[in-house]
Backbone:
């Protein structure tokens, strides 16, 4: 789990760098930029899901039927706070769009997703605080 958190922290740094150097026009005009952003977001979201579900299973927090339920169970067990819970629920949904809806993806929404990167970092902080107790 610590390895995944480290990869997520590295991804967050790269996505922040991406946001500071790539404009929306760059994203629209260069397929490589689009691919980079899609994969960076997808991998980061998947790591959050993997860690969340791992913690739920490892500590017997419940029997989730979806990725979203893993987030709910983490909140109920005080691994994450309500504010982060609400943001993570919003973050998990677009993962399937990144993978399965590649033809119809809205580039503006994809680029705006970079505004949620700080929430990825908050997830890392809250999980690290909990597992270090």
Residues:
């Amino acid at each position: 789990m610590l390895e995944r958190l480290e990869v997520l922290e590295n991804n967050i740094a790269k996505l922040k760098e991406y946001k500071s150097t790539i404009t929306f026009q760059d994203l629209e005009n260069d397929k490589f930029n689009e691919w980079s952003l899609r994969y960076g977001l997808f991998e980061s979201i998947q790591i959050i899901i993997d860690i969340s579900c791992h913690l739920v299973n490892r500590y017997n927090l419940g029997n989730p039927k979806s990725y979203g339920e893993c987030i709910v169970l983490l909140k109920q067990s005080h691994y994450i706070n309500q504010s982060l819970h609400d943001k993570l629920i919003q973050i998990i949904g677009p993962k399937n769009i990144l993978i399965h809806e590649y033809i119809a993806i809205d580039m503006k929404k994809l680029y705006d997703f970079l505004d949620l990167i700080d929430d990825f970092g908050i997830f890392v902080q809250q999980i690290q605080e909990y597992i270090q107790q």
